[in-house]
# Entry
Amino acid sequence: MTDPSALLPALRDEAEKLSFDAVAIAAPDRIGEAGARFERFLAEGLHGDMDWLADRPERRTSPRGLWPEVRAVVMLGVNYGPGHDPRTLQARRDRGAVSVYARGDDYHEVIKPRLKALARWLVATAGGDVKVFVDTAAVMEKPLAAAAGLGWQGKHTNLVSRELGSWLFLGALFTTLPLPPDAPADDRCGSCRACLDACPTDAFVGPYRLDPRRCISYLTIEHKGPIPGPLRERMGNRIYGCDDCLAACPWNKFSQLGRDAKLAAREVLNAPALADLAALDDAAFRELFRKTAIKRTGRDRLVRNVMIAIGNSGDPALADAATARLADASPLVRGAAVWALSRLLPAEKFAALAARHLADESDPQVRDEWTVDQAVIPGRREAANP
# Structure
């Protein structure tokens, strides 16, 4: 095809047939200051345990650093809007709150075959070489999506679309074809700071700047160690991810419900009982979360999060579920269970448990949970010294 622009209507039609809700073209060299901001982000150590972000950063700061031959980037979006405010679940303290995006099949596995199908169509129709990415390679999807005009990066650092709000999965198709780029979208956040004010852990350093080390999504998914003490109470019953800043965005009022059946939430993950999740062994964890994004986090980190939610529940009836985890093989789980029980049990009962378990505990971090001064964590019941 001699005129690349003539290809665009057919490309958009094919993308729609493959259940993409948005498609636009970005020039690979038009991500503005995103590369410099990313380098500053790494220099400040804000990536925490996400070591892969610092691996060959030059590949991430420019699409051509990843693939020198790329001449255009087709950015695609899939709407996963829940059609309701997911924050209402936070009032049900005996239930775990799972981020909307993780309640269905793993979006990586759903979207990548569609991207590959679109790539095959593009090569068959117009030639060239292609590569496809769905949040699994060194690609700055959000700056590229903003450059393509799919939306703008809001103050919560996520993409905001005028049509679909803050609920978009993104995929990228790199091509050697010289497709003409679309115009970038204007930032329409204005003076609004609803997303910033909604953050339970004050993770935003300022507008458009996030410290992931304080973000509940990072803490519950990426962070490998114990949850930092000052942030535990703020997690509430959020056991995997956090939707608060996304759900607070006023642009969601124009968003239609995500219509993709393959990304629909599984009923069992809409409001799972904390007591049931606390009892998961590795095999049961793998079965329950089969084909979901949660499976990659692993059983121990999820049950750690469940223990924190149990501690925040205020429900003494959940103490048995936490007590059962004091003998867990994972010190990560044992330590979180200790914290949960210190919140739920009267001082004398907690002291009795400490006397029973502390002598046999070899992990120093778990021992610290038993012996830490009870006054350092607001709301924690004061326990007698064992």
Q: What stands out?
A: Residues 373-386 have pLDDT under 50 and may be disordered. The two ends are 79 Å apart (CA to CA). The first strand starts at residue 22 and ends at 26. Residues 300 and 329 are 9 Å apart (CA to CA).
